[in-house]
């Protein structure tokens, strides 16, 4: 397979080669890279396989997964391509590493959150759950994509109360949209700008630990 993405992977220390493990695939924000997500999921590294995926498109000193016409307005062709490639990568990694296909999670920030929510809707129960931090779902995804049932998919969404990139109402709209589609749902607002606070991190870490045991 000709891989679209660079990535780094961390297997639990003292992992049993005869066992498979739940996995978290992380997706960074626009202009960042896969290293930026490491700290967020570090507390989970002994329980999950962690796969940090780098966007394949250069943007300044960092990377992105798709290009934009403007803020909040993805170039459709670029976005569609990213969704296809990421889904293919998730399947590739599941075959290559000891990943439990029934325990796959996505965790994304900003552009990564946008893609995490989109992939939940397109992959459905192929995913166990997602954590989406400060993102939104493009309107064309809701109206033009072939959406799958997510009533068995766990969803944690958070947003910054003072987010200057995506106003907090967008987070509330995300919550209303997903709450109608899955009972396994959590939504929290934190007193932050466009970022992830320590409290936010503690909450999604606890949520992932509990959900993986569910």
UniProtKB/TrEMBL annotation:
Pfam families, per the entry: Abhydrolase_2 (PF02230)
Family: Belongs to the AB hydrolase superfamily. AB hydrolase 2 family.
Gene source species: Paenibacillus lignilyticus
Residue ranges of domain Phospholipase/carboxylesterase/thioesterase in the record: 24-206
Domain of life of the native organism: Bacteria
Keyword annotations of the record: Hydrolase
UniProt-recorded Gene Ontology molecular function terms: hydrolase activity
Protein name in the entry: Dienelactone hydrolase family protein
InterPro entries xrefs: AB_hydrolase_fold, LYPA1-2/EST-like, PLipase/COase/thioEstase
